[in-house]
UniProtKB/TrEMBL annotation:
This is DinB-like domain-containing protein. It comes from Ktedonospora formicarum. Residues 20-157 form the DinB-like domain. InterPro entries: DinB-like (IPR024775), DinB/YfiT-like (IPR034660). The lineage of its organism: Bacteria, Bacillati, Chloroflexota, Ktedonobacteria, Ktedonobacterales.
Length: 162
């Protein structure tokens, strides 16, 4: 008798990687003291707080794009200004923005993302979309980009701290 292996829901396979990448980013961010959080470590660089804010902003934009992929048939996603040029101008939080505020926003956004992703049926993870830079992709690849984005900025923070 052959027992069929139960397929794990796509959300369950990606959830751990999303958590791990974010924990890695937060671990790198925690290495900066209060004064270093707002410091620029070289010409043309972002401060650790600006990097965290950028990550927060991109996750919000990506959530909008993920919902669009589920709502429309093979949509062409737009690239926002903050995605196109993550410079100081587009990644600068309001002067009153604190690390606590950014962290709270990141946590709330991630909770919203997880809550929504967990409700999607397995077939939703293969929905197609078009990206102006990357071409034809699937929904799960856009989710994967969140993991890669966290990992990229965790590495960026590690380089700043050296």
């Amino acid at each position: 008798m052959v027992v069929e292996e139960e397929q794990q829901h796509p959300f369950e396979t990606v959830r751990g990687r999303l958590v791990s990448a974010r924990v890695t980013f937060l671990g790198q961010l925690a290495k900066f003291n209060k004064d270093e959080l707002a410091a620029l470590f070289g010409k043309g660089t972002l401060s650790p707080l600006q990097i965290a804010y950028h990550l927060y902003m991109i996750e919000g934009l990506t959530l909008v794009q993920l919902r669009l992929v589920q709502a429309e048939e093979n949509p062409l996603l737009e690239i926002s200004e903050i995605e196109e040029q993550p410079t100081q101008a587009s990644a600068t939080p309001d002067s009153s923005t604190t690390l606590d505020a950014v962290m709270a926003g990141m946590a709330a956004q991630r909770e919203e993302l997880f809550s929504w992703l967990s409700t999607l049926p397995s077939e939703a993870w293969t929905r197609p979309f078009r990206h102006p830079r990357w071409g034809q992709l699937k929904f799960h690849q856009l989710v994967q980009s969140l993991i890669e984005h966290d990992q990229h900025h965790a590495q960026q923070l590690a380089c700043l701290k050296k």
